[in-house]
Design a protein that fits this description.
19 helices; 6-stranded antiparallel beta sheet; 3 domains; Aminoglycoside 3'-phosphotransferase, Chain: A, domain 2; 5-stranded parallel beta sheet; 15 strands; alpha/beta; 14% strand; Rossmann fold
Length: 526
């Protein structure tokens, strides 16, 4: 870490003030690795001449290469924001910005930067969250976009070190090495030491899984810095920007390492419910339930990354107030990492009821509030047949996807996934009709085998309400469920009532009125 703040380059002030200024209102925002100049309609990002070990911008050639890489990787997700690489031409007292392709041979280049389309600061997801305007619909759209981005991203070449267990553990250790230089009270030092032991032990335990996922193509050219300040609403839709350009090792990572950053950040901002909503939405689109076994390790790692960044700011802080704020951030992220490293209680909930009973809508909120992985039969049935969650199956699959055989395959698949979630250390909620007693028994037996509590959340509403909901959902479209009124009538005829043993596990949820989960289900696993 640099012991003192870096001085601004000589050409920066003339870009902001005087005859060479970009415009009268130009201003500069400084981060721990960049200067960002904001002008009318444009933003220009210039890299500090630093070598911090995990990044090296110390030479002009390195900064030029990093700018070109930043343009390339961010155009994957935000092509309308990232416009060009520009050169800062001298003299320093009267600098000019020229697009790289228009640079004349022999020109006096003082530095390089990335030219971006400027957007309103209040469109950042961090600002949206603070203002209370970040919605679950935004997170649904973001989860879909991230899953598509990961699916299309380049896969790490076979035999490369990217995403290997050895490299990942080395990166985790780098956080501890950097934090060792931060002046901390003894209590925080003890927390840091405990986290280091946990990270080393879990890293060793998870090494075979990390190697397996690397070999199976889960390590890809991801974003690498996926937190709320690097996400923005453009035209009401979330976009990813400011991906890591300075380190291939920090960008070529397991996809779960990417989404873990946002999950951690939402929890750090006091919204674990939104973190879980995003995680469940991402799982629905990506289908990567196996990633959950690595999630605790990576959310702790991400919290320690933020602690390390706050430590960098602490080292560069020029006044006492800034130092105090940076130290408080280090301590906050250490406390969060400690919380995220603790084992979770596990349980298995069955969400039971006919189409239109409100299972999916109300269980989504419950899963988010309680931090539960949700598995949906409507989604997983389609995945078995190679269909996207909202895709229409009619006429696509010979024989259809709702045959008795397909239904049994779906429940078997859900049971296997639920076991996988429980083995990863998480509670799980399975959203299906569970009309047949045999299907319910399959999951009650799984809970007994896993030695976890089991509850049956039995959803219902008056038949007229059920019919109206099914009709409305069909008109609206875009839902994983394809149930029609005919399907509903058939379900009502064949549903098997809960027997006495099941009744002992059951909680009836009347969705014709407001559902208050705090009152209905006060104990998380009870």
């Amino acid at each position: 870490m640099p012991p003192t703040p870096l001085p601004n380059p000589a050409w920066l002030a003339p870009l902001l003030h005087g005859p060479a200024a970009l415009d009268a209102a130009a201003q500069c925002i400084e981060t721990h690795i960049s200067w960002v100049v904001l002008a009318a309609g444009r933003a220009y990002k210039f890299k500090k001449p630093l070598n911090l070990g995990f990044l090296d911008f110390s030479t002009l050639a390195q900064r030029r290469a990093a700018c070109l890489e930043e343009l390339r990787i961010n155009r994957r997700t935000a092509p309308g924001i990232y416009e060009a690489v520009v050169a800062v031409l001298g003299p320093a007292q009267a600098p000019r910005l020229v697009p790289l392709e228009a640079l004349e041979q022999g020109a006096e280049v003082l530095d390089y930067g990335v030219q971006m389309q400027r957007f309103a600061d209040d469109q950042l997801l961090a600002r949206q969250l603070a203002a209370g305007t970040l919605t679950t619909a935004h997170l649904d759209a973001l989860a879909h976009q991230v899953a598509q981005f990961h699916a299309a991203a380049a896969v790490a070449p076979a035999g490369s070190a990217w995403g290997s267990a050895a490299l990942v553990r080395q990166q985790a250790q780098a956080n501890f090495d950097a934090l060792a230089t931060v002046p901390l009270p003894e209590a925080d030092r003890a927390v840091l030491a405990g986290l280091q032991r946990w990270t080393q032990q879990e890293g060793q335990r998870l090494a075979p899984l990390m190697a397996q996922r690397q070999a199976s193509g889960c390590v890809r050219e991801c974003h690498g810095d996926l937190h709320l300040n690097n996400l923005v609403l453009i035209g009401g839709q979330p976009q990813l920007f400011d991906a890591i350009e300075f380190s291939e090792a920090l960008r070529w990572i397991d996809t779960v390492a990417d989404i873990a950053f946002l999950a951690m950040d939402l929890q750090a901002q006091g919204r674990p419910d939104l973190a879980w909503h995003f995680l469940n939405a991402w799982l629905e689109h990506a289908g990567d339930v196996a990633a959950l076994a690595l999630l605790p390790w990576y959310v702790v790692y991400r919290a320690l990354v933020r602690a390390m960044v706050a430590g960098l700011r602490l080292a560069q802080a020029s006044d006492e107030a800034a130092r105090a704020d940076s130290l408080a951030q280090v301590q906050c992220y250490l406390a969060l990492a400690q919380q995220l490293s603790r084992p979770r209680a596990r349980w298995l909930w069955l969400v039971h009821g006919v189409s239109g009973s409100g299972k999916s809508r109300h269980s989504a909120r419950l899963a988010a509030e309680r931090g539960v992985v949700r598995l949906r039969a409507d989604v997983e049935r389609k995945r078995l047949f190679g269909l996207a969650p909202a895709a229409t199956s009619a006429g696509v699959v010979p024989g259809g996807i709702y045959t008795p055989d397909a239904t049994q395959r779906t429940y078997d698949h859900l049971a296997a996934l639920a076991a996988q979630v429980l083995d990863a250390g998480f509670p799980v909620l399975v959203d299906a009709t569970f009309l047949a007693r045999a299907h319910r028994a399959q999951f009650v037996a799984l809970a007994a085998q896993q030695q976890v509590p089991c509850r049956i959340l039995s959803f219902d509403a008056p038949v007229a309400v059920l019919r109206e909901r099914v009709e409305r959902r069909l008109r609206k479209g875009g839902n994983a469920s394809e149930a029609t009124l005919a399907v509903l009538e058939a379900q009502l005829q064949r549903r098997e009532p809960l027997d006495a043993a099941e009744q002992a596990l059951a909680l009836t949820v009347d969705t014709s009125q407001a559902v208050d989960w705090a009152a209905l289900l006060p104990a998380a696993g009870g």
